[in-house]
Amino acid sequence: xxxxxxxxxxxxxxxxxxxxxxxxxxxxxxxxxxxxxxxxxxxxxxxxxxxxxxxxxxxxxxxxxxxxxxxxxxxxxxxxxxxxxxxxxxxxxxxxxxxxxxxxxxxxxxxxxxxxxxxxxxxxxxxxxxxxxxxxxxxxxxxxxxxxxxxxxxxxxxxxxxxxxxxxxxxxxxxxxxxxxxxxxxxxxxxxxxxxxxxxxxxxxxxxxxxxxxxxxxxxxxxxxxx
Amino acid sequence: xxxxxxxxxxxxxxxxxxxxxxxxxxxxxxxxxxxxxxxxxxxxxxxxxxxxxxxxxxxxxxxxxxxxxxxxxxxxxxxxxxxxxxxxxxxxxxxxxxxxxxxxxxxxxxxxxxxxxxxxxxxxxxxxxxxxxxxxxxxxxxxxxxxxxxxxxxxxxxxxxxxxxxxxxxxxxxxxxxxxxxxxxxxxxxxxxxxxxxxxxxxxxxxxxxxxxxxxxxxxxxxxxxxxxxxxxxxxxxxxxxxxxxxxxxxxxxxxxxxxxxxxxxxxxxxxxxxxxxxxxxxxxxxxxxxxxxxxxxxxxxx
Lengths: 227, 303
Fold this sequence. Notes:
Mean pLDDT of chain A: 95
Radius of gyration of chain B: 19 Å
Oligomer: heterodimer
Low-confidence stretches of chain A: none
Largest sheet of chain B: 10 strands, mixed
Shape of chain B: globular
Low-confidence stretches of chain B: 1-20
Number of helices of chain A: 11
Number of strands of chain B: 17
Strand content of chain A: under 5%
Structural class of chain B: mainly beta
Shape of chain A: globular
Helix content of chain A: 55-70%
Distance between the termini of chain A: 35 Å
Mean pLDDT of chain B: 88
Number of strands of chain A: 0
Strand content of chain B: 35-45%
């Protein structure tokens, strides 16, 4: 199977990971009307890309790939525990686990590999919690996809899901959504590079205002999204 | 830094391991404190300070037996390349309130980041409340703080932080390079919380997802077996009642509270003044004091 087709399936926004029910805090910004139209949505997504997606998600994907490189399942357990500790807002932690376990289930049928199976087994045994970024990285790495490709694919596919969710929620026109995605596409390469050069001490660095909105979403009235 | 190696009287020899034998670059300031239970109250049972870190003699603000220790920096502020180390051991059943004499100021750090290492060890049933004054970072300042907490499952931890910017000579704000606070809490040796706060004003740091236009970030990390869902709901209700915030209401802090993966919660607030940030943090600390410890409100009178 060609790697392009594998990548397209893994990053398909219709892949049933449950991403369509998570806004990662965006819904709080919709509620406060800080995000209300195309420009404010694009700015928010650029901010999300430059903060949490770069310092937490992309670095987690890289660390999972690096562990694969040295073939240590103990390293995956450490990374898994680290992510559980780093994802402070409860809904963000829950989203990562819900989507992560779903990806492992999908991988079992669609992207089978010893890497993904081993992580799935560790989750089933309770040795790991099962985070999305790790599951995504292992599912992809198990198919021979490289670290740089996986980081870029992870970032772009996450932004795609979020954009489609926002198009439904704001609501925006379909073409406006595509314009937003085209704008984001130009920003992804620099986030990929920044995550590669990130100071290790910044792994999991939170953006305070984003985090507060993610926390406040827990008790927001009338929610469309689980996070 | 002028003051060097001052060993406090009453420090029992050999209580703190590795005293003065480290091969690492000399610390700008060092503080080690062991607190244990003596009779009906907690008291320092070992103490060592050197360089630009001192601790004032404990005082007892209330009848609970919890001593308040005030840490001070006679050097006046942190400079580039400075490195500080604080180690507090709270022995079984003991309780400590840690505070500072005044705000911690970080000035220009062209020689490399000012660094502070904090190691808090909480034995069974021990309790630590750390409520320092605000950290103020000035122009071109870079500050790295690493806090490691090792605690027993039934110990109680409350770590507060407030970070803000100093004013540049031209009256503009947010010109420091980086403030990075990394806090890792282990319960019985297992990683429980890793809290990583990074503010880089030059890197979109004052933007809507970072500080939302506010000048102060406050954080309160609580790890305590009593901090269950009900406690989090109560803290949330208290905050909502006192600070009925909307993201767009000026002067009102924006506060979020969430449950940790272990018993405990994290609170973050964005505010426009130190006073306001402190009001949020102290309000929640006072609630825990009253509800869990039958203790009166914080009394951080500066000596």
